[in-house]
Amino acid sequence: MNIPFSPPYIDQAVIDQVLDALKNKWITTGPKVKALEQEILELTETDATICVNSWTSGAILMLKWFGVKPGDEVIVPAYTYCATALSVLHCGAKPIMVDVLDDFTIDPEKVREAITPKTKAIIAVDFAGWPCNYDLLKSVIESPKVRKLFKPQTDKQATLGRVLLIADAAHSIGSTYQGKPAAKKCDITIFSFHAVKNITTAEGGCICLNLPAAFNAQEEYNYLKIYTLNGQNKDALTRAKSGGWRYDILFEGLKINMPDICAAIGLAQIKKYVQTLLPARKLIANEYLNGFKDQEWFMAPSLVDSERESCYHLFPLRIKGLTEFHRDRVIDDLTALGIAVNVHFIPMPMLTCFKKLGYEMKDYPMAYRNYSNEISLPIYPQLTKTEIRFIIASLIKVVNIQVNSMQNGMVESEMLIPVRL
Ligand SMILES: *Cc1c(COP(=O)(O)O)cnc(C)c1O
After folding, report:
1. Pair (332, 254) in one structural domain
2. Stated pTM of the model
3. Which atom of ligand 1 is nearest to the CA of 192?
4. Which residue of 192, 362, 378, 387 shows the fewest CB atoms closer than 10 Å?
């Protein structure tokens, strides 16, 4: 077998949409981006949606929009993709990493402890599509004690009057919270449309605004659109249509707009997302749950409870009692069988960039624990029943080999590469 980890969903409808953009002879930001933004607006029920060229650039944009600058702090989980913290560094501010809960999401109590007068924002990560506990996070940032610490330094900060809550929703388009789109739970929700995500535009992202009533969503949308285009007051399409050559640069904007040729891919996919693509992912998750339920070592991922439902972006199972060394052997064995799996994530304090900045893995014991025995299995609509059965049977086989080798007295000190704490 040769089962890739997360190939993009490219059907005839996707190809037709891209061809349509090519044939229309309009390939950069234009009608396809507008149509994609409209689809996302309907899916998320938020107040405004702005497409950009990646999650990362969207996060930098929104931190800059809020006025995050050197001397400020932004709280992030230690357990995420590097971009969550890099976006903060790119604004000159300091990412304050905190530990996660057993379900991989940021620990609201640790957030409370980390808030200082320098804190301007929190970026919470909906790991694997599983929304963070936003009710708790909101009660933290809205508590009078925490509000009193907040020191507004820009108009936006004064208007909000408290710490900004951003969802790193790179994984979680289509997730729900209390029966509504999870994107409605935060001030700002940012999706990624990178090639491996549930919906892709090859590279891309989308910012959803869900700000308090003191903000005018339409005005913020207009301002942010200009921000994504070098601060230029007329976009290329407007100029092409009106024939007007004159424009102005209003402020030092970024250049992070999404091209139509990319939006076309996502536009074709999102039209099928709720009806077809998302249920297909859920079906596979249920096959896995059923396939592994009798295995003593199986620790199921958080996918649904009375309040939240994941969009099944990943199937991040954990293997009870397995050490990092033996987990890596399981991955080698699956790879040898032609099954591509992944680990989400290598916690940031284990990466050179963050080690150099002084972050230490020993400060995040839950993140290490969650990482050490985690494996993400393939989960996407194109997976066949035969492939799913093969993955289930193979994982059971190779895990049992490793579990036995651990139990049969393989001395840990002989087997283990030094734990990379
Ligand atoms: C993919 C991902 C990102 C980055 O998305 P880009 O669109 O590649 O910038 C950020 N955060 C998380 C959790 C991700 O998985």
Report:
1. no
2. 0.96
3. 7
4. 362
Residue 347 makes CB contacts below 8 A (sequence gap 6+) with 78, 79, 361, 364, 367, 368, 371
- Ligand 1: residue whose CA is nearest its atom 6: 55
Ligand 1 closest atom vs CA 171: 15
Contacts of 48 (CB under 8 A, 6+ apart): 41, 208, 209, 217, 218, 220, 221
> Do 241 and 296 share a structural domain?
no
Residue 19: inside a domain: yes
- In ligand 1, the atom with minimum distance to the C-alpha of 56 is 9
Same domain, 305 and 172: no
Two tokens at 342?
A: 């992944």
Instruction: For residue 69, report the distance from its CA to the centre of ligand 1, in Å.
Output: 22
Of 51, 53, 55, 74, best ligand 1 pocket probe by most atoms within 8 Å of the beta carbon: 55
Q: Which ligand 1 atom sits closest to the C-alpha of 344? A: 15
Boundary-marking domain end, from 231, 249, 270: 270
Same domain, 323 and 180: no
Residues in the chain: 421
Look up the domain containing 96 and give its range: 12-270
* Most ligand 1 atoms within 8 A of CB, residue of 5, 6, 51, 56 to mutate: 56
The total of other beta-carbon atoms located within 10 Å of residue 12's CB is 8
The per-residue pLDDT string of the chain (421 residues; one tens digit each, 9 = 90 and over) reads 999 999 999 999 999 999 999 999 899 999 999 999 999 999 999 999 999 999 999 999 999 999 999 999 999 999 999 999 999 999 999 999 999 999 999 999 999 999 999 999 999 999 999 999 999 999 999 999 999 999 999 999 999 999 999 999 999 999 999 999 999 999 999 999 999 999 999 999 999 999 999 999 999 999 999 999 999 998 877 777 777 888 999 999 999 999 999 999 999 999 999 999 999 999 999 999 999 999 999 999 999 999 999 999 999 999 999 999 999 999 999 999 999 999 999 999 999 999 999 999 999 999 999 999 999 999 999 999 999 999 999 999 999 999 888 887 665 544 444 444 3
Which pair of tokens denotes residue 35? Answer: 């149509």
Q: Is residue 181 part of a domain?
A: yes
